[in-house]
Specification:
Helix content is about 40%, strand content about 15%. It has about 350 residues and is an alpha/beta fold. The chain has one domain. The strands form two sheets. An eight-stranded mixed beta sheet has the order 1-2-10-9-3-6-4-5, with helices on both faces. Strands 7-8 form a two-stranded antiparallel sheet.
């Protein structure tokens, strides 16, 4: 690999992430993401990365001019980060970052890691979990690129990495992902059914890393279907119903799901935040920070709920600070604050300057 290295210890920002109450983003975002990924696959494999990156400019400009809802959502988000209306070049840069990470997904899924420089910040947060045996449950956001995490798996001599995602999205993306990297086994654990918890539990017990994105709502689990004899299958243990929390994020209240933390509490797992930030060109940065530890059973449901809420708030704080430090890396192109309390973009309590990446 060109450079997969751990720099000297840096100030690791506190935790964060977010999610709206509705799930309309599933049809709006993930289908378009699939189409975009298919287009990028063709461009990447036909032109190669250097020429393909030139094509990103007209693609980004088209997206900015003609996808009005997404462009408006991008502008609203950037206004909250900057505390002022974003300039046209800043709006364009946000969309170009998104297009660049989608293009790089093709190469990362094909394990062409030598084409990238990937630095790691605070890998100790992950190592401290793995050294105690078993795997690790990572919670990220639509921030940068999740696929960069696969480079970490390769650098650690075959550490298994699975994507934990919504069942419908897994079905939509599976065919495209396998077309990109048919020679590799892309591990996806599809949420939405009760037995998914058992699959995830076994994956972690076998030492695997499971990563999920926590800034969108989790669907309710569905019961397993009937057995071949017609008798309903015995339901697996289900996670407690997820709750929505209004949490301050970029100066306004947004709705966040506590689903990933309830899953961790059910499986009695620690939770580590991860983000694969895109720094431009061929540079990425992997960041880790422990958010919560549910290995000790809570004394009561109320105590468990307090721990879940605390983990969620650390997650949101981390996301908030990383969005301020790397504002062009957050890729939720819809009205993220629609279900929260509306305040003026950029308003909110005074904050210290964001940490330098």
């Amino acid at each position: 690999m060109n450079a997969l290295r751990t720099p000297p210890p840096a100030a690791v920002v506190p935790p964060g992430a977010s999610s709206p109450s509705g799930a309309g983003w599933i049809d709006q975002g993930e289908r378009s993401n699939r189409a975009t990924l298919a287009l990028m696959r063709w461009i990447a494999t036909t032109l190669g990365r250097r020429l393909a990156r030139l094509v990103l400019h007209p693609i980004s400009l088209y997206f900015l001019l003609f996808n009005r809802k997404a462009a408006a959502a991008s502008s609203d988000y950037l206004a909250r980060v900057f505390g002022r209306p974003p300039r046209l070049v800043e709006r364009y840069r946000h969309i170009h970052h998104f297009a660049a990470t989608i293009l790089d997904r093709v190469y990362l899924l094909q394990e062409r890691f030598d084409e990238f420089q990937i630095d790691i910040v605070n890998s100790e947060a992950l190592d401290q979990v793995l050294v105690q045996g078993g795997g690790a449950l990572l919670v990220g956001a639509h921030l940068g690129s999740f696929e960069v995490l696969r480079a970490l798996g390769q650098s650690r001599r075959g550490q298994k990495v699975a994507m934990v995602m919504y069942e419908d999205n897994a079905r939509l993306l599976n065919a495209t992902l396998r077309a990109i990297a048919p020679q590799h086994d892309l591990h996806i654990i599809a949420l939405g059914r009760l037995e998914a918890m058992l699959t995830l539990r076994d994956w972690l017990a076998d030492g695997g890393i499971a990563g999920m994105l926590g800034d969108r709502s989790l669907p309710p689990p569905r019961r397993a279907g009937a057995t071949t004899s017609g008798t309903p299958a015995a339901p697996a243990a289900a996670p407690s119903p997820t709750h929505q929390h209004a949490v301050d994020f970029l100066g306004a209240r947004a709705r966040f799901t506590d689903g990933p933390f309830r899953i961790a509490a059910l499986l009695r797992q620690p939770v580590v935040f991860m983000a694969g930030l895109y720094l431009g060109g061929n540079r990425y940065q992997l960041r880790f920070e422990q958010l919560a530890d549910f290995r000790q059973r809570a004394a009561s449901p109320a105590e468990r709920d307090v721990a879940i809420r605390a983990g969620l708030e650390r997650y949101v704080a981390m996301l908030d600070q990383l969005c301020r430090a790397q504002p062009y890396n957050w890729f939720n192109f819809y009205d993220y604050w629609a279900a929260g309390d509306h305040t003026t973009p950029g308003a909110g309590p005074d904050r210290p300057p964001p940490p330098q990446p």
